[in-house]
């Protein structure tokens, strides 16, 4: 990891030197852009690091350490967004005692930009989630949960567009089917809609109408299921177009590196998930130029 | 300044801006990496300072010793019933029945929980409130469902086909070596299909969790408002030594 960081750091400074040399030409200058996307999933109220004697994750994780890493990366590249793919709640007494207050407070301190809603985020009911909203200064995104007839109505958006250094980034959220997974009395009148159909619609809107340069999906569907009927991130990637990155959750899948998947237009996109409990931070760097230097259409992916 | 020249400057700037806009940003390279969060990152002070009072209060409550377990209690020991499952179902029976009796004048006939809701092994050593949070982190409470004979039969069939040992208490199920049903006893008496029974279970299961569909057929439902975790904590406070074993409540005979 240290070596990789060093390499990407060097590449970034090389790019800045290149731009500096052309500083008199404003057009070409604005062309080269670097966007960093950081992400977590299924943190499950793990605010403290695991103890040193933990059998699986000794001395790993910890929100105050994550804060330091995020600060370092933002310092390196101010054009950074930070997302969470759901299941913020449930798993330590911090949630049982305080209902998610501290989780939202700290995510706001870390300047998270958005999160999608996982099944465990319903664990104290819609009332419990609603009660913690004042502590969250970030957006909640879900395109396939319809909250119209609930008190969460207007507090969750299907998507949001972030303008970062002139790059238009469309981000939308997807949640897992709630029936059979969450008690009805907790999710109440929340309506689950087919995530793949919704993703096809929303990504088209973001691409064709909103003209986004980058489209990111925050998914709490899960990485992969054998059941062909059960939506997962790999199926979502293969059956949609226009999405550049799927940030996944729910299955607590520790991917060593993002998975490259061909979408339905045979274009390579990334699916990533970084396990659970705040043990890892995912980092994806996108490099843009002004699109005129050469005719080639390809994107080089290094993971 | 000459007006014409000024115009020229503005127009030229606009044209320049326009030509800039036409160059749509083109994605060229993507790099991905996973960054482990470990000792190498120093905790950020301002974040630590926010966490500290919450952490201190929780530790104060959770770490006072309530009992002692001479031996680890696990749900994976045993096949048809397990020490952890038996302990949990027995605790629910013991702690919730007085609440149900006081509210309704009736008795719980048996308890049914789900294997998946036991979230952690109970390690050998001190038992604290923290132990209860580890075993049962979820905010589920006990409800008492009145089920008819048909639903009980469906439940027994579900349990005999299940690949995991769902916790039960107050009921005995006996199967033969082919797992075909030999006997069902409830409160020590043979199962009577013509009467109804009061079954204590979790609000997670009654609302469709783990696909225990027979629970949806309840005739009446009584909320105990008693969190499963709190039944554990209340029990731990009453005892000195915590132990549990497998027994004959779910039995396979040859």
UniProtKB/TrEMBL annotation, chain A:
Transmembrane segments: none annotated. Signal peptide: none annotated. Pfam families: Metallophos. One of its GO terms (cellular component) is outer membrane-bounded periplasmic space. GO terms for biological process: nucleotide catabolic process. One of its GO terms (molecular function) is nucleotide binding. Keywords: Hydrolase, Nucleotide-binding. Residues 36-253 form the Calcineurin-like phosphoesterase domain. Belongs to the 5'-nucleotidase family. This is 5'-nucleotidase. It comes from Arenibacter palladensis. The lineage of its organism: Bacteria, Pseudomonadati, Bacteroidota, Flavobacteriia, Flavobacteriales.
From TrEMBL, chain B:
Pfam families: 5_nucleotid_C. InterPro entries: 5'-Nucleotdase_C, 5'-Nucleotdase_C_sf, 5_nucleotidase/apyrase. It comes from the Bacteria. GO terms for biological process: nucleotide catabolic process. The lineage of its organism: Bacteria, Pseudomonadati, Bacteroidota, Flavobacteriia, Flavobacteriales. Gene3D superfamilies: 5'-Nucleotidase, C-terminal domain. Residues 78-217 form the 5'-Nucleotidase C-terminal domain. One of its GO terms (molecular function) is hydrolase activity. It comes from Arenibacter palladensis. This is 5'-nucleotidase, C-terminal domain.
């Amino acid at each position: 990891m240290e070596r990789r960081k060093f390499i990407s750091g060097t590449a970034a400074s090389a790019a800045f030197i290149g731009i500096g040399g052309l500083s008199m030409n404003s057009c070409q200058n604005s062309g080269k852009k670097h966007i960093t996307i950081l992400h977590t999933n299924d943190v499950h109220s793990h605010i403290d690091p695991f103890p040193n004697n933990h059998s699986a994750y000794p001395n790993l994780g910890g929100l105050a350490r994550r804060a330091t890493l995020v600060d370092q990366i933002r310092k390196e590249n101010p054009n950074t967004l930070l997302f969470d793919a759901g299941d913020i709640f449930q798993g330590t007494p911090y949630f049982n005692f305080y209902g998610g207050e501290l989780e939202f407070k700290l995510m706001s301190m870390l300047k998270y930009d958005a999160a999608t809603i996982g099944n465990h985020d319903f664990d104290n009911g819609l009332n419990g989630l609603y009660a913690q909203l004042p502590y969250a200064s970030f957006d909640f995104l879900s395109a396939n949960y319809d909250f119209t007839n609930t008190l969460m109505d207007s507090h969750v958006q299907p998507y949001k567009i972030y303008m970062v250094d002139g790059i238009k980034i469309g981000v939308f959220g997807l949640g897992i089917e709630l029936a059979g997974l969450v008690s009805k009395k907790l999710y109440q009148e929340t309506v689950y809609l087919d995530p793949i159909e919704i993703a096809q619609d929303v990504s088209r809107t973001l691409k064709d109408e909103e003209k986004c340069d980058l489209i990111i999906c925050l998914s709490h569907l899960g990485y992969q299921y054998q059941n062909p009927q059960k939506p997962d991130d790999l199926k979502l990637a293969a059956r949609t177009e226009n999405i550049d990155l799927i940030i996944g959750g729910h299955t607590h899948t520790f991917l060593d590196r993002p998975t490259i998947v061909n979408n339905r237009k045979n274009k390579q996109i990334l699916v990533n998930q970084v396990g659970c409990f705040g043990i890892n931070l995912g980092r994806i760097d996108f490099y843009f130029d002004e699109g005129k230097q050469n005719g080639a259409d390809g994107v080089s992916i290094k993971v | 300044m000459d007006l014409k020249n000024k115009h020229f400057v503005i127009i030229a700037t606009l044209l320049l801006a326009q030509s800039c806009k036409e160059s749509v940003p083109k994605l060229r390279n993507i790099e991905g990496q996973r960054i482990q969060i470990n000792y190498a990152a120093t905790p950020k002070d301002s974040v630590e300072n926010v966490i500290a009072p919450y952490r201190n209060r929780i530790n104060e409550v959770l770490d006072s010793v309530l009992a002692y377990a001479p031996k680890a209690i696990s749900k994976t020991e045993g096949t048809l019933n397990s020490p952890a499952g038996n302990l949990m179902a027995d605790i629910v029976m013991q702690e919730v029945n007085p609440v149900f009796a006081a509210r309704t004048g009736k008795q719980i006939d048996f308890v049914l929980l789900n294997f998946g809701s036991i979230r952690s092994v109970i390690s050998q050593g001190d038992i604290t409130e923290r132990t209860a949070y580890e075993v049962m982190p979820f905010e589920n409470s006990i409800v008492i469902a009145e089920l008819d004979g048909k639903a009980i039969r469906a439940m027994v069939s579900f349990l005999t086909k299940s690949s995991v040992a769902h916790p039960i208490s107050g009921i005995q199920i006996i199967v033969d070596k082919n797992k075909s049903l030999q006997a069902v006893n409830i409160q020590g008496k043979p199962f009577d299909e013509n009467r109804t029974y009061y079954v204590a279970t979790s609000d997670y299961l009654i609302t469709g969790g783990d696909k225990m569909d027979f629970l949806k057929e309840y005739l009446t439902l009584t909320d105990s408002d008693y969190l499963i975790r709190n039944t554990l904590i209340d029990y731990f406070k009453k005892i000195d030594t915590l132990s549990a074993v497998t027994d004959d409540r779910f039995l396979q005979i040859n």
